[in-house]
Structure formats: structure tokens, C-alpha cells
UniProtKB/TrEMBL annotation:
InterPro entries listed in its UniProt record: AB_hydrolase_fold (IPR029058), TAT_signal (IPR006311)
GO MF annotation list: hydrolase activity
Biological source species: Streptomyces endophyticus
UniProt keyword annotations, A-Z: Hydrolase, Lipid degradation, Lipid metabolism
Protein name, per record: Hydrolase
Length: 411
């Protein structure tokens, strides 16, 4: 998802928060692709770590605040917890999305040029096994994940499954009424309200749009902090050894990760995958800084940008860098686009191949970096970052450019 408000992942020239309107209002109006006899089924890459992966989906209820989108008396969240499992025997592989979530994603996603009904999103299986027992032989660092605006928590599965296979407990957060569709136990679905909210704000003018974008960001940060509360209670209830906690996210999720790092000392480190840290029309515009960029942070930060996005070109990243006193690294994945930092980098090449779409459509979505190289680089650098700051590992990959990953530029 493009930053805080832009809904089309692949639009090359309209990536800032005020570009959200046109994208939101044209969702579903993309040109139709040629008819196919059946919907395309997709595969995710297997995790690279030594541990089998377990997964549970949990409903969390924050009774201390009303839902900011619906005024319901409590804020409800759905999260996926992925973790190193003791065994996965007898536990089936979890779907990437439920059928109801897949239907919502099919109606409201960020893939311009792909019409609804062409992909069987519910058929994709992850490499996480439902309700497999946790491996309790060691303390596992905890990492939170927040997706981009409108994107479901499951669109970061390539990275969350991989971190779990390397020994992390990863909690992927859905933000209801922001995300395309969130299914709660019993089959109730919360569909995104952002399209109509944005249309209403756009009619009122730029100030209303900015206020909506600030609200969207603040709700995400509040959700993340509530999940941190839940993690603390889980440690106490189950008498688990306390482990450091990190967070990462893509686009608006990357914004939420760094803003939560700024606001909450319980986070030890955070990584931002191509998320602007300001309320501006374009990533490269000056002004409109979020407090994390205006004030900086004193704990470790990893910035990973798509090609053309780094601290030299994105003012909010420059200001974060200038005001921060902690360890920080700024990396660029050459040939990447905004959506490269999601499961789109694996799934959309399969879609384009099966539906015989033009190469230009695919490169608009995920750039020119080969899928296997994009996945390997993201996994390696994200794991190196959390290994260094949550486990005390050497994280040497972050010290200098590596011939193993020539696609990564150190800025």
C-alpha cells in the first residue's frame, strides 16, 4: 500500500498521501483483462529458517477506547501469531486469507489493471501450520507487523513466516475498517470504510483529507500499542521469559512501526519498508512531518526504500535521520517498486504469467528486480536487523554492501 493514503501500489507518479483520493475513487474501474476459464491459484515461497512454523489467529478487544471508525463501545482487532513450532505433525497449513477476507480483497485491492474475479485468493496456503504447539525450549523475541493501508495482515506472509522460521514470534495486525476486509470469529466481516471516508473528506477540501490521514495513522499506532499491552499480559500469564520486542511494516505500516517506536519505549527497534513519515501529497514533498520525523528516535531504525526513495530524496526520512541519535541504516532495493515489499512481489508475477498480462503491467506493480532476489534480500536484511537488536547477534550484513546481495544499495 502506498504510504498513508495512496491506494494504488503500482502508480509510479502518485505516491503521496493526498494522492489517495483519485486511487480510492477509481478502485474497480481498472481495465478488464481477457477472460479465463478458471481463477488463478497462487503459491507463496517456503520460509528459509530452520524451524517449522505454527500459527494462531486471535481476536483482541480493547475496552479502553471506542472504535474510532464506527463508535462501537470497544475496538476489536484480529491478529495472526506466527511462531517456531515444536512439531507440525497433524496440523494443516493455514490459508493466507479466509474466504470472506479473500472476497473483500478481491473487491478492494491495490493492483491496478487486475479486475475482480480473476484470482482465487482464498486458495493460497501459507507455510504456517494452524495451532501447532509452540517450541518453548528458548525465549523468542517478539516482532509486530503492520501492513499498508487497505492491505490485510496476510499480505506480509512471505516475511512474517520467514521470521518465525528463524525463531521469532511474529504478530501481524489487521486494522479493521482500514483493511479491505477483516473476518472475526463467527463469520462477521468488517469491510473497509476508507473509500467513503476519503470521498467525504475530499469534498471538504485538503485540510479534511490531511485530518483523515492523521486519524488513520493514529488509529494504527493505538492498535499497535494495545497489542504491546496484550504481549505483556501474555508474558505474565504464561510465565514466559521477557524477550525484546521489535516492529516492522510496509508503507503506512512502516510509518506505524516508527511512530510506535517514537511513542512507546517498549519497542526496542523498528524497520520501515518504504513508508513516508509525513502528511504530504508526494513522498518527495517538504513539510507535514509526523512527530517521529520531526523529533527523531534514540533506538535502532532500518529504512528500506523502493528505487528512488531514500533519505536524500524523501524529506521526512532526511529529517528522521537528522534528528535521531540511535543506530540507523538506509538501504535501497534496486529495481523495486512500492509493492515489492509485500507478497505482491511473489504473487503478481504468477498472475501476470497465467493471465498473459503485458510486462509493463507487472513492472508497474513490482518493478524489475527478479522475484527470488527481492525475497532473498528483504528476508536477509530484515532478519539481520532484528538479530542484531533483539538477539544481540552480530548482524554483520548491515555493516557494508555484500556481494551476496548486489541489489541492495547502502545510502
Amino acid at each position: 500500500m502506498d504510504d498513508l493514503g495512496t491506494i494504488s501500489m503500482g502508480r509510479p507518479a502518485r505516491r503521496g498521501v493526498l494522492a489517495a483520493g483519485a486511487a480510492l475513487l477509481t478502485l474497480g474501474a481498472a481495465p478488464a483483462v481477457a477472460a479465463a476459464p478458471r481463477r488463478v491459484r497462487l503459491r507463496l515461497p517456503a520460509p528459509s529458517g530452520p524451524h517449522p512454523v505454527g500459527r494462531v489467529a486471535l481476536r483482541l478487544v480493547d475496552r479502553s477506547r471506542r472504535d474510532p471508525w464506527t463508535a462501537a463501545p470497544a475496538r476489536e482487532l484480529m491478529v495472526d501469531v506466527r511462531y517456531p513450532a515444536r512439531t507440525v505433525a497433524g496440523h494443516g497449513r493455514a490459508p493466507q486469507m479466509t474466504a470472506r477476507e479473500a472476497a473483500g480483497f478481491d473487491r478492494l485491492n491495490n493492483f491496478e489493471g487486475l479486475s475482480a474475479g480473476r484470482v482465487d485468493w482464498a486458495a493460497t496456503r501459507t507455510f504456517a501450520h494452524t495451532s501447532a504447539p509452540l517450541d518453548r525450549r528458548a525465549a523468542h523475541p517478539v516482532v509486530l507487523y503492520s501492513p499498508g493501508v487497505v492491505d490485510p495482515r496476510s499480505l506480509g506472509t512471505t516475511l512474517t513466516d520467514d521470521l518465525a522460521s528463524r525463531g521469532y514470534v511474529v504478530i501481524a495486525i489487521d486494522h479493521p475498517y482500514d483493511v479491505s476486509a477483516v473476518e472475526f470469529p463467527g463469520g462477521r466481516v468488517a469491510a473497509s470504510l476508507l473509500p467513503q471516508e476519503f470521498e467525504k473528506a475530499q469534498r471538504s477540501g485538503p485540510a479534511a483529507v490531511t485530518a483523515l490521514l492523521k486519524k488513520t495513522a493514529s488509529v494504527r499506532v493505538a492498535d499497535a500499542r494495545f497489542v504491546l499491552d496484550a504481549v505483556g499480559r501474555a508474558f505474565d500469564t504464561h510465565r514466559l521469559r521477557r524477550a525484546p520486542i521489535g516492529m516492522f511494516g510496509q508503507s503506512a505500516g512502516g510509518f506505524a512501526a516508527l511512530q510506535t517506536l517514537h511513542d512507546d519505549e517498549r519497542l526496542a527497534a523498528a524497520a520501515n519498508l518504504d513508508g513516508v513519515l509525513a502528511y504530504v501529497q508526494d513522498d518527495h514533498d517538504e513539510g507535514g512531518l509526523a512527530s517521529v520525523a520531526a523529533e527523531g528516535v534514540d533506538r535502532p531504525v532500518l529504512l528500506m526504500g523502493s528505487e528512488g526513495n531514500d533519505r536524500r530524496t524523501v524529506p521526512s526520512w532526511r529529517e528522521l535521520w537528522r534528528h535521531s541519535g540511535g543506530w540507523r541504516r538506509d538501504l535501497t532495493l534496486r529495481g523495486s517498486r512500492h509493492a515489492t515489499y509485500t507478497d505482491a512481489t511473489t504473487l503478481l508475477p504468477q498472475v501476470a504469467d497465467r493471465l498473459d498480462l503485458p510486462r509493463e503491467t507487472l513492472t508497474t506493480w513490482v518493478g524489475t528486480v527478479p522475484t527470488h532476489r527481492a525475497v532473498a534480500a528483504q528476508r536477509a536484511y530484515l532478519a539481520a536487523f532484528f538479530d542484531r537488536w533483539l538477539r544481540g547477534g552480530d548482524g554483520a550484513l548491515l555493516d557494508a554492501p555484500s556481494p551476496r546481495y548486489p541489489e541492495i544499495d547502502f545510502i
